Automatic annotation (TrEMBL):
SUPFAM superfamilies found in the cross-reference section: Thioredoxin-like
Organism name: Roseibium algae
Domain Thioredoxin-like fold as annotated: residue spans: 48-132
Keywords for the protein's UniProt record, in alphabetical order: Signal
Alphabetized Pfam families for the sequence: Thioredoxin_2 (PF13098)
Signal peptide residue numbers: 1-20
CDD domains hit by this protein: SoxW (cd02951)
Protein name per UniProt: Thioredoxin family protein
Length: 194
């Protein structure tokens, strides 16, 4: 199917900086660089590590306006998407989906029962996993960071940077890390509205 942009729509997209995200049959917005996997978390962690990346799981749901905004405003921004693609393998989960998931503790679940088990109730929620799969832990116990909800560009991007730089392993809390970057952006005149 060929999509044609009318001059008005093209001007609107250019003026707002918003790009329409594709929506799959499950009602979730899609990025062509998301990884489709068998949802075996330990295996996905190993696959990401073999590519020199970290595993990030994004929980979304049909009709989520915050998920749509994340796709259209954040994941369509080349500065954000290029960093994520270079450093993370991203697997999308449907908070109310029935696809099979294998937790790190070996339990087989559906996406929706995994979300309940791990305590994730907001969409989007991004879960950052360790570099290697720990044995006997669940995903929420093993996660090195979790970002529940939608944020502005710099909070969103800085969380991915902080995890990539293993900030969680040191003494500098994410909020301090983020504040330093925001201050530097203000001083350089690059800060957009957060």
């Amino acid at each position: 199917m060929i999509k044609v942009l009318t001059p008005f729509l093209l001007l609107t997209l250019l003026a707002t900086g918003t790009v329409a995200a594709e929506v799959g049959e499950d009602g979730l917005h899609k990025q062509d660089w998301f990884t489709i996997s068998f949802r075996d978390i330990a295996e996905d962690i190993e696959t990401a590590a073999a590519e020199g990346k970290r595993l990030a799981i994004i929980f979304e749901q049909r009709g989520c306006i915050y998920c749509k905004a994340m796709h259209e405003k954040l994941l369509s921004d080349p500065e954000v998407s290029d960093f994520i693609k270079d450093h993370f393998m991203v697997v999308q989960y449907n908070m109310f989906g029935d696809e099979e998931v294998i937790d790190l503790d070996g339990e087989t679940l559906t996406e929706k029962s995994a979300a309940r088990k791990w305590g994730y109730v907001f969409t989007p929620t991004i879960v950052f996993l360790p570099e290697s799969a720990p044995e006997g832990k669940t995903v929420n116990e093993a996660a090195v960071a979790t970002m529940p909800g939608a944020f502005g560009k710099w909070t969103f991007l800085n969380m991915f940077r902080w995890v990539s730089e293993k900030g969680y392993a040191g003494d500098e809390h994410f909020q301090k890390y983020h504040a330093i970057i925001i201050n530097d952006l203000r001083e350089s005149g690059r800060l957009e509205t957060e």
